[in-house]
Design goal:
This protein has no helices and 5 strands. With 54 residues, the chain is mostly beta strands.
Length: 54
């Protein structure tokens, strides 16, 4: 997997990782894909929107 940037809301610091999983969630605008990673600083799950499911 390629490296993506995520944001840790507790520390208010960005981090970059290639250790994430892609999940699909149903939203009001239809199914969307999100990357979910664990912050190396606090261990909090962080989400990043990847886009609409095709």
């Amino acid at each position: 997997m390629k490296k993506l940037k995520f944001y840790d809301p507790r520390l208010k610091e960005p981090f970059e990782t290639d250790q994430y999983e892609v999940v699909e969630k149903q939203t009001a605008r239809g199914p969307m894909l999100f990357a979910v990673a664990k912050s190396p600083y606090t261990g909090v799950k962080t989400y990043r929107l990847l886009g609409k499911k095709k």
